[in-house]
Specification:
By secondary structure, this protein is an alpha/beta fold. The protein has eleven helices and seven strands. Helix 1 packs across helix 6, helix 3 runs parallel beside helix 4 and helix 5 packs antiparallel against helix 11. It binds nicotinamide-adenine-dinucleotide (NAD).
């Protein structure tokens, strides 16, 4: 347990991949995570309001005595095609409005909005809803003097999500193209929380911070990438690379996270080396999910 003043933190969509990891870490560091989600949390000991952020009465109850909101709930990339544009708009736009509005009504001043690098796809269904969300974040930060941090992670679905990745190799091939591990996205949210906790202000209101992973390569090697670059960095893993059909000539796409590091103190840890080590250790099964064997929380209202 840390010496930080504990905060009561509302995690919308807190039963999903990111929310579950965050719930676990927040509990471990002595904060009080409260989840609003239709699905039951994977982590025991969190406060839980079962239902939708589209239910404004429930949201009002969940927002009571909250110090900081981490707004996660959204349909995202994998739901494009599966969910209709109306469903995207309802959850990602109306839902985001509801969460900001409920926070403002309860006087909550600290807010972390999980956006996405998909804002680059400004005319896409998902990207557009995140642009609107970021716009709302700016409006609420100005109108209600809220301290809002917007995080823009690139794709981070974890390897243990078997509804998306059939096995670790599938995930590893995706990761090798340049990616961020979910544990680093979680770290970026914890950095943002600590930033807000200590009363610091971002240079711009509701500033957006890109979240990418760790890379082992120098800028020079990235620039001059060729099929031998991986051999230079990971000679001991090269056979593994070839065995699993990775393309060594494929240059990973790396994003600029200068401000995220400089302002929020974010320091990504998981790189291609970690992925290769896990591939060698766990093979196609991959590392176990951090929730394997963990007790389910009971869906009761919190007494905290
Ligand atoms: N997963 C990625 O690759 C990725 C990349 C960039 C940004 N993001 C953003 O990160 C956030 C979530 O990521 P994740 O991977 O943890 O998602 P996830 O799909 O694992 O979790 C989302 C959670 O939201 C809940 N939810 C859905 N509708 C809800 C509603 N009406 N009310 C309350 N809860 C609801 C779901 O039950 C689920 O538990 C989203 O904002 C997403 O846009 C995700």
């Amino acid at each position: 347990m840390s010496s930080k003043k504990p905060l009561r933190i509302l995690l919308t969509g807190g039963s999903g991949d990111l929310g579950s990891l965050l719930s676990l870490s927040l509990l471990q560091q002595g904060d009080v995570p409260v989840v609003i989600d239709m699905a039951t949390p994977k982590v025991a000991g969190v406060g839980f309001f079962q239902g939708s952020i589209l239910d404004r009465d429930l949201l009002k109850m969940a927002m009571k005595d909250i110090d900081c909101v981490i707004h996660i709930a959204a349909w995202h990339g994998i739901h494009e095609g599966g969910k209709t544009p109306a469903e995207f708009h309802d959850l990602n736009v109306t839902g985001t409005f509801n969460v900001f509005e409920a926070a403002a009504a309860e006087g909550v001043k600290k807010f972390i909005f999980i956006s996405s690098t998909s804002v680059d796809d400004q005319y896409g269904i998902y990207g557009h809803t995140k642009i609107l969300g970021e716009e709302m974040a700016r409006a609420y930060a100005h109108r209600h003097d809220m301290d809002v941090i917007t995080l823009r992670p690139r794709a981070f679905i974890p390897s243990w999500n078997r509804t998306v990745y059939a096995n670790f190799i599938e995930w590893a091939k995706w990761f090798a193209k340049g990616a961020v591990h979910i544990s680093d996205v979680e770290q970026s949210a914890l950095c943002a929380l600590d930033f807000l906790r200590t009363g610091k202000k971002t240079p711009e209101k509701a500033q957006c911070f890109t979240v990418d992973g760790a890379y082992d390569f120098t800028a020079e090697d990235l620039k001059n990438w060729d099929k031998d670059t991986l051999m230079k960095y990971y000679p001991e893993f090269y056979d593994l690379f070839i065995k699993y059909g990775f393309d060594p000539a494929r240059k990973p796409k790396v994003l600029d996270i200068t401000d995220t590091k400089k302002i929020l103190g974010y320091a990504p840890k998981y790189s291609l080396r970690n992925m290769l080590e896990e591939l060698k250790t766990f093979g196609a099964d991959g590392p176990p999910s951090p929730f394997e064997g963990k007790k389910k929380a009971s869906p009761s209202q919190p007494k905290i």
